[in-house]
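Thread: Modeling a multi-component assembly for a lab meeting

Hi all, long-time lurker, first post. My supervisor asked me to bring a structural picture of a complex we are working on to next week's group meeting, and I have zero experience with this. I have the sequence lines for every component (266 residues in total). Could someone generate the structure of the whole assembly? Inputs are pasted exactly as I received them:
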Amino acid sequence: MNAPPTRSVSPPTTTDTASAGGWPPGRVLVVAATYNEAENISELVSRVLAADPDLQLLVVDDDSPDGTGTAALRLAAAEPRLHVLIRRGRRGLGSAVVEGFRTAADHGFAVAVNLDGDLSHDPDDIPRLLVALDPPGGRPADVALGSRHVPGGAIVGWPWGRHVSHWLVGWFTRFILGVPVRDGSTGFRAVRLERFMRLPEDHPAGYAFFEEMLWQVHRQGGRIVEVPITFIDRQCGRSKAGPAVMVAAMRDLLGIGWRAWLPWGS
Ligand SMILES: Nc1nc2c(ncn2[C@@H]2O[C@H](COP(=O)(O)OP(=O)(O)O)[C@@H](O)[C@H]2O)c(=O)[nH]1
Ligand SMILES: [Mg+2]
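Re: Modeling a multi-component assembly
Sure thing. I ran the full set together rather than chain by chain. Output:
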């Protein structure tokens, strides 16, 4: 783990900043990683907190130059169910989500829900993910994926190039990594923390975290279920999945594929 965050609201420039409010007891913590989402943050916070009164939200921001983290801190000052961690000196979607999940476990939450900070994932779908994780009278799961590729799921607004790379990653996850899911790269997922905290700790720092986590859960015999969602590409702000991020994700995925196939792979 990285150094513990400070609890100040007026940030020094080199250390992490966390919102100063306490943590009410809770079962489910929603984790949203953000980088330059100033146009989306306020709507994201209000829609997540309105989706269910028992939810709390942690925004993990990587010191966004557009002030997303500071805006979230301002909102958190008036909202006990909102928590903010501004990381300094670290970048990466995967590492931000991992840090959010570990924070959730540290504060006694049983379940973390991860969603993007650009409103591509509808917070109103969170209750369906939670029911899929713990179906009344049914078999509990370790991970419930918000899936775009099971009947009823959809992707709206992506350019064709994005569909191609997404299809390739999905194919790789299913047939090379052997994870029996249709949408292994979805960033919308409910995760049982007891399972997550038992996974090997060295997750990829970037986008490949999503496939790697499922691979590890599957290898441990964990149960993964899929719930249809409609993903709507962002209306505001810009995607961070540029060429460098995509290349890093491909490199990480190939590394995992290597480990998956080598008899002595870890
Ligand atoms: N904390 C943090 N969040 C990130 C980073 N990169 C992307 N994100 C967030 O991860 C989510 C998904 O990123 P996005 O750019 O929308 O990727 P896309 O949906 O794959 O095009 C958004 O909420 C981003 O703000 C990062 O390096 N650090
Ligand atoms: Mg997006």
